[in-house]
Amino acid sequence: MSDDETVPADVTGEDEIPKDHPRYEDLVSRHRIESGVEKGITHLQGVHAEGRGSAFDYLLGEETTPSADEAERAAAAQLLLADRPVLSVNGNVAALVPAEIVELADAVDADLEVNLFNRTEERIEAIADHLREHGAEGVKGLTADARIPGLNHERAKVDEDGIYAADVVLVPLEDGDRAEALGEMGKTEIVIDLNPLSRSPQVAAVPVVDNVLRAVPNMTRHARELADADEAELRRIVDEFDADEALDAAERRIRRGDSSP
Ligand code: PTJ
Could you tell which of 25, 47, 92 is best to mutate to test the pocket of ligand 1, judged by most ligand atoms within 8 Å of the CB? Predict the structure, then answer.
């Protein structure tokens, strides 16, 4: 496929999407993913992932549910408690929330590491550049001098002083294999995924069932609110969070439109 045969965009700039369009957020997401593919940041498979996520978001009511908000607060507390927090970035995250993920890293003092399922050096570099254009200072993932044990695909490649050494890892839009393998390494995982039945949120300490577009800025807001909280307060928030209940609440909302807590 030549460059000019890549996914056509109906709009050339995101600002051309009318803000009062009832499906504004969804149109923005599609546009960002298409631009990500054109820039060599997002893999073509990211388009499928986005479509799947968008269907779940529709059923969730395209809003941050009270239960997801609680998960985002627990995630912020967990990241603030961490000694070596790392935020993992793939092609969809880089396209959808580049500035927002940099802001979250800043708010919780975490490293950003590019980690790809469909890994090529070109995409790693393009994503690292894109994050730097959005204010990131150090971006990890380029050295790839360590391996996550038990994984035989490209997502096993990590930086020794990044994900490999991390105690808490945020893994948005993850595949289940790596989520499980990171858990087996003893890491505390925070997963953002709109599908509560997916294996990755099922194995996460903190599953965040929300759109990454809303989840990441909301985690930053919580982190800023909690900036002066002491360790005991942060621990209480983490301990009171119930991962199974959060997954059940999301599933109830999807299956029955049930918005009770
Ligand atoms: O950039 P790469 O090469 O690392 O590849 C990234 C993708 C996303 C293509 C790859 O990890 C993949 O194929 O993922 P899956 O297995 O399709 O899983 C993606 C999950 O993310 C699905 O459960 C979707 O429901 C969910 N998802 C999609 N868009 C969003 C989302 N969750 C939160 N916010 C979204 N915007």
Answer: 92
